[in-house]
Write a sequence for this structure.
């Protein structure tokens, strides 16, 4: 559960910064890449695996 909450927090912050995964595959891939990298630094595994 803590990992999921971390993911939601990072995801929400990226939206607040202007990222939008619903604008197309390129934007989705970019946002997910940032999420995965940030979560990795926080010790959280890739939520998309």
């Amino acid at each position: 559960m803590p990992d999921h909450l971390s993911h939601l927090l990072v995801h929400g912050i990226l939206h607040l910064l202007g990222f939008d995964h619903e604008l197309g595959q390129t934007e989705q891939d970019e946002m997910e890449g940032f999420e995965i990298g940030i979560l990795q630094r926080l010790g959280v595994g890739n939520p998309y695996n």
Residues 25-41 form the longest helix (17 residues). The mean pLDDT is 94. Helices lie at 2-16, 25-41. The CA atoms of residues 36 and 49 lie 10 Å apart.
